[in-house]
Each structure stands twice: as structure tokens, then as C-alpha cells.
Specification:
75% helix, mainly alpha, 0% strand, 5 helices, Four Helix Bundle (Hemerythrin (Met), subunit A), 123 residues
Length: 123
Amino acid sequence: MPAISSVAPGNNQLIDLSYIQQLSNGDKSFEKEIVQIFIEQIPQDLAVLKKHFAAGDFPQVKQSAHYMLPSISILGLETKLKVELEALETLDAAYKVLERHVETIETVCDRARTEAIALLHSY
């Protein structure tokens, strides 16, 4: 069976579907459902992370970053965001650095969401 990514070759610059494909064992409807969940969930996760960061609620920033890991990992983004997520989970950086990490997470996730939407439409 062809991989999902072969449906839209070259479009995926950020997302990596190999983990989903491994889990799905060839079940394309499962793969599509997981991608759809990411598309729906990630804006909410980002909004919560940004809200807590703006409020200076760092225990909640830490929790929000940890909560986002499964969504990010399922599409292979954890390697691209490893430094940023670890810094937010440990709060081991200056405020301005953490702020840039939040912005980077948002940018990468937004771009990955755009890729995921295109992928979903390619079915």
C-alpha cells in the first residue's frame, strides 16, 4: 500500500507521517482521522500555551507544553521542536528566550497544520 505522504509528494516539509503509518498498519481512514485530530486540536493547544505565557503562569506553561507533546509527536514534529518544548517544560531559560520558543512552536505548528490540511484534501 502506498504511504499517505505519497498522495501529496513533496508537500510535507515539516510533518513526518511514518509514526502514524506504523500505528495504522495500512488503515488509511485511521491515518486520516489522526491528521484531522491534529488539525482540530493544535490551534486550541497553542491558544492555551500562549494565554498562560502571556499571563506569566509558568506552572501552566510547563503543563501546556507537556500536554502538546502527543499531538506534536504523532506528526513527527518533536525533533523540530525538541529544544523549545524542553525549555518550556523545564523553564530553563530567560523570559525572552522562552518567548521566542513559544513563537517558534506556534510558527512550526501553524505550518504543520497547513500541511496537514493540504494532505487531508489530497485524499
